[in-house]
Design a protein that fits this description.
- The structure holds 2 protein chains of 2 kinds.
- Chain A contains 4 helices and no strands.
- By secondary structure, chain A is mostly helical.
- In chain A, helix 2 crosses helix 3 and helix 3 crosses helix 4.
- Chain A is flat, with a radius of gyration of 26 Å.
- Chain B is mainly alpha-helical.
- In chain B, helix 1 packs antiparallel against helix 2, helix 2 packs parallel to helix 4 and helix 3 runs antiparallel to helix 4.
- The relative contact order of chain B is 0.18.
């Protein structure tokens, strides 16, 4: 069983490395992600962001403009996820603690 | 209150360090326009400063800085700041989260930059309050009897 797991993991690693090895270089100007127009003929979003980020929001940090302005809906979702996680912790952790206190008597509750 | 050391050196040194952590957290939030940073990172640092005081002087002593009940309302306020910015733009006749329509009396591009700042502040409030609230939930309800200013 252990040997099987090892075999599966090694073959997956080999598959991943094979996939990565055929990717274009990150700084390749002819890579599809760095072109102004993709091979399919549609405009690439990255090109617009790099050209217009400062003009659109007068903010030197391009990443901030993309995160909070162009992709503002996504960041709203992230904030909502954090808020939901905090809310979910409340009933789980507090509810369990209350059961413990009820079981152990009154003198533990006062501090 | 149990679970913390009644140690003057720890309490004093953390009290000394916390204002600087908070100042740097605000710097990270407000300087996110010019350097790496922003609401999530600054909010996490702000939460770290709250938690440092909680760990060093105990939850009761930390009530003077950030009260136990503020966590959940604060995180909802932060999320609402973000959401309301988007809905406000919607009411003014634009798209959802179109900051350029906010009535701030500036040019369109500057207004977008300020809109990003408002949104980042909302994110920072939400993250800081949520992380502090999770810590308070973990610690439990010791010290809930009596007013928080007793300590």
């Amino acid at each position: 069983m252990k040997r099987l797991v090892l075999l599966v993991l090694t073959s997956f690693a080999a598959l991943m490395l094979y996939g990565v090895s055929t990717l274009p270089d990150r700084a390749d100007p002819h890579a599809p992600a760095n072109l102004e127009v993709s091979p399919a003929g549609s405009p690439v979003a990255q090109d617009y962001y790099i050209r217009h980020a400062y003009e659109d929001a007068h903010t030197p940090n391009m990443v901030t403009v993309i995160l909070a302005d162009y992709r503002g809906y996504d960041t709203l979702g992230e904030t909502t996820v954090i808020f939901a996680a905090g809310l979910a912790c409340f009933p789980i952790l507090r509810g369990r603690r209350r059961e413990d206190l009820e079981g152990s008597g009154e003198e533990d509750t006062g501090s | 209150m149990r679970g913390y050391y009644d140690d003057r050196i720890v309490a004093l040194s953390s009290r000394l360090v916390v204002p600087f952590i908070q100042l740097f957290a605000l710097y990270v939030v407000f300087h996110g326009h010019y350097s790496p940073g922003g609401g999530f990172q600054g909010g996490a640092m702000l939460a770290a400063s709250f938690l440092l005081i909680r760990l060093s002087v105990g939850t009761d002593g930390a009530q003077l800085q950030f009260r136990k009940g503020w966590g959940t309302p604060g995180s909802s306020i932060g999320t609402l700041v973000y959401l309301m910015t988007g809905i406000f733009a919607l009411i003014l006749g634009g798209y959802f989260l179109d900051y350029s329509l906010l009535p701030l009396g500036m040019g369109e591009a500057e207004t977008r930059g300020m809109g990003i700042l408002i949104v980042e502040i909302g994110v920072a409030i939400a993250v800081a309050c949520t992380l502090t609230a999770i810590y308070d939930d973990l610690v439990g309800e010791e010290g809930r009897s009596g007013s928080p200013h007793d300590a």
